[in-house]
Amino acid sequence: MVGTALNTAVIGCGIGGQAAALFLSRAGHQVTVFEGFATPKALGAGLLLQPTGQAILDKLGLLGEILGAGARVERLYGTNRAGRDVLDLSYADENTDWFGIGIHRGVLFSALHDEVSRSGIHLCTDSQVLSFTQDGSQAILELADRSQGGFDLVVVAEGGSLRLPPNIWVRSKSVPYPWGALWTLCPDPEGRFPHTLRQYYDRASVMIGVLPIGHNPSDPSGSPNVSFFWSLKAAELQRWRGNDLDSWKDDVRRYWPEADYLLCSITSDEQLLPATYRDNVMWPWNVGRVVYIGDAAHCTSPQLGQGANLALVDAYVLSETLTGRRATPETIPRALTDYSRRRRDHISYYQLASRLLTPFFQSEGRALAVLRDAFLGPFCRFPPTRSFMVRTLAGVHKGLLGTFRF
């Protein structure tokens, strides 16, 4: 332990919250995690762990377990209806040590949660934090049935819904994206979709994707699985349920015949679950002795696959900042201001990139799709732009031209 042991509350038992709790506990701080659900669980299907997220899991000693359960992803490949290559990026084109890991969100959650359980971190479930107050010396959490205070540090990591509003001194807004997706998990016993995140586009209004994720805890066969997703307007997600499933499958086959192999495992529309996205913008990410991390601070569209990775990096940098500054209860506000400064360029780049890129893949903009199909392919082949794009995919850009380093 370096510095003074801090009495710390972490709000939210997701990926970022658990990673923050582990790093802070290992630094010698007393950590209590508050979770609104009676039983903590993962929400969502597959995600892509970039080299940045992998580095954080390695620091936690969990990367080996994740590698064994996930699927190695070496390439991002997208084609359009005309059969033209729109997007073709390989991690190895920039760094032969880089690759992605497609993984079931529940597997990653369980690896973190098992480590939290072994660490002695105090977990308060069924404890929805409604608000917080703070004076110069401590923060007090207001729960539905009680108040709990005396915290030197509060880490808000409750996800992208911003149920817990930031203080008036923090500028923030949360805007829903007009497009979402339907997703499901499909077994791939023959391994037809290995090592590549594949996408199919028709204009910007149709996007179909398949991400290999390796082990699915809900599949007793033990076959490798993939996460299958179908882009759809957010307003249509709920109305879609109850439609003719066979007609929908025919639509998918017409766009992408190879997907028929996966569609056979979809026998009910209830297997396809809706996902919506938000664009959370906040600055700074701290007020007093409270700090926001992960999606609570900077939720984005999943187009760049950075959400979980940014949350993991947040957790590490927060702990490193507190340790490096030898933070005490009195110096917490200054340390959190330093944390926001250190994370600003990295996070702002990915928020802006996601915001700009998403309409090229999920919108009614025909002109945007024409530009995408005309230029992304050549950009992938031209070494300077290919390098820039792979580095963006890998999560290592900091600002426009900088590099994120640990």
Provide an overview of this structure.
This protein has 406 residues and is of the alpha+beta class. It has a single domain, classed as FAD/NAD(P)-binding domain, CATH 3.50.50.60. The protein contains 12 helices and 23 strands. The strands form 6 sheets. A 7-stranded mixed β-sheet has the order 6-5-15-16-17-14-18. The longest helix has 30 residues. The chain is globular, with a radius of gyration of 21 Å. The mean pLDDT is 91.
Shape designation: globular
Oligomerization state of this entry? single chain
- Proper CATH architecture: 3-Layer(bba) Sandwich
| CATH class descriptor name | Alpha Beta
SSE topology:
Blueprint lengths: L6 E5 L3 H12 L3 E5 L11 E4 L1 H9 L3 H7 L1 E3 L1 E6 L4 E6 L9 E5 H15 L2 E3 L4 E6 L4 E5 L3 E5 L1 E4 L14 E6 L2 E9 L8 E7 L3 E9 L10 E9 L3 H4 L4 H11 L4 H4 L9 E3 L2 E6 L2 E2 L2 E3 L2 H4 L8 H18 L7 H30 L4 H16 L1 H12 L2 E2 L3 E2 L3
Parallel strand pairs: 1-2, 1-12, 2-8, 5-15, 12-21
Antiparallel strand pairs: 3-7, 4-7, 5-6, 9-10, 10-11, 13-19, 14-17, 14-18, 15-16, 16-17, 20-21, 22-23
Helix pairs in contact: 1-4, 1-9, 2-9, 9-10
